[in-house]
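Sanity check

After download, print the first record. It should look like this:
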Amino acid sequence: MKRPRLNANGAAIILALGFLLVLLTIAAGVHTFVVRQLRASGAERRSVAAEYVAMGGIARAVGWFNSQNYQIPNGASISPTAVPVSLAHSNTALLLPATHPNSYTDSLGGARSGVVVSYRSYLTNQSTSVGTYSVTAALISTQPELWEIQATALVGGVQRQVGALLTRQQDSLFPGALFGRDDVTLNGNAYTDGYDSSLGPYGGANRFETGSVRSNGSISLVGNAMVKGDAIPGPNSSVTTTGNAQVTGLKDPAASTTDYPAATIPSNAANLGNVDLHGNATQTISSGTYYLGDLSISGNAGLIVDPSSGPVTIYVTGSLSIAGNGITNLGGAPGQLSIVQIGNGGASFSGNASFAGTVYAPNSAVSLNGNGTLFGALVGASVSVHGNSPIHYDQSLRNLFGIPGPLRLIAQWMPPD
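Expected structure tokens:
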């Protein structure tokens, strides 16, 4: 029997059905691919969104630390048995918000309360229009103060974490030999240089061109005056040299002004009244913190400072006039003797006596006259040096810091997916 032949229309229908089947197969594959891509794209968008939410949490944490003027609890120290940090009085790791005290006395002696409550209200389970986040913080070092913070964000079921490091900004009280808020003048044969008292006495190989002079205003050098180091005037000021005066380092203006806070007398300071030494009189002060009204030394008189049991700090609320045999620092190292002037009573050093210490008088005019030698550093509203006085800046004073500044973000990272 002969098989029936397909006519042209039947063949065309079969071919069309086959082609349609192929198209449907391709379409199904494309649909699956597109759905997967859309799903992947959505997950990627949520991941990126979560990353940005976490970074926002980091920024909010930095803002919280600084808006609160946060300071660590008094006695916080590194513990060899607990990481990252333990409080000396409780041996509990210092973690925000988990194990941090809510109320405490901070490292500057201030009373704190509601710290953990505030932290939680700003940084725990926070909701945004996109997702949620929480931030934790761990103190990992006290010298320098260093915090590791981690923000965890959740957007549409996708979680991302961002970590960061914060460190406390600290500016040295004595970054150079002389600082005059308004101006600095060196006249005659006066000069500055540097040494490091931790290496031994000044001289020989222990001499460096690090006697920098700084001001928020102008710096003037007259005659044979010399700055062996940088002379950095204020942002809108300059350095002028007359005669043979010179600067061995830079003379570029500072990018911004420097502010020195006014000092306050601590509660543990002992009252010495007014100290007026003249004739052949002497007075000895041992280790400790003291305050007095006027301090005047003249003739052959002298004040003897004995820092054998610790440094000596003297707060002067009136005027400061040092002549005669001046102040003798038996310890020798400038960091062992600090004179801090409260107010603007004026501070003058004259005669031939040497002085080893620091003078911090940010609101007072400070003058050096005669042939005396200064080992250490000076801060004043204005500073003038006349005669033959050399100023040997002690580089170890760079480790003396002022009021702690804000916490700054120094690093940020994301853990891998």
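If your output differs, re-run the checksum step. Summary of this record's structure: Residues 78-91 have pLDDT under 50 and may be disordered.
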